[in-house]
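thought: fold this chain, then report.
action: predict
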Amino acid sequence: IYKESDMRICLLGYGRMGHEVERVALSRGHEIVAKIDSEWDTLPSCDAVIEFTRPGVAYENITKCIKQGAPIVSGTTGWLEQWDKAVECVKQHDGTFFYASNFSIGVYLFRLINVYMAKLMNHYPNYLPSVEETHHIHKLDYPSGTALTIANEMIEHLDAKSEVLAYLEPNKAPSHSDDQLLIASIRKDSIPGTHVVKYESKEDVLTLSHEAKGREGLALGAVLAAEFVVGKKGIYGMEDLIQLD
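observation:
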């Protein structure tokens, strides 16, 4: 949709996602100029950086790229307590930063439906909402960034809920107050990612779910984001990439 031909892309993180991003980028005619999977100081010349690393190093990777003038697309989750500092860095250095907790177009559409559903269900407090996310055993953080985004967007429209409380199964659900929205996190096998929203009453259950079949959709979204940010300045997200009007 936004394709810029022959982009020169640097990959930060060369794990499962990095490999899939490389495959998709090459299939779209781009060049991978570097694959960095360890500590680094200076980026090679490139049109954009795509970063899928670890929560503990994501903020440093992002700000180093911004300070060196490289547009960066990041999908690493678990570091958002430092979000405000990253935003300030972008402003100070007139940088370019695209962030998404999930680059899947299907997940973005799921989020839009989820928000609409929350608005409807706010009128029916007898339905108790909950969120469940399931990922492969190699995922380090919980809840998933996508689950946290989903839950926070629900809270914006549910008067009875004001904060999120996550727990990792097989632990039992923790004791919680009525205004807390529970997220159950499950780590199992090699599941790419499944997110489920439930509203349960005594009479029935309403369920909204998204199940990823693999990493290709995430990788494609990240490459589309890299194509999108060429020539732009500022902070962007999936709502900028996907034009629904």
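thought: worth noting. Residues 71 and 96 are 5 Å apart (CA to CA).
final: tokens above.
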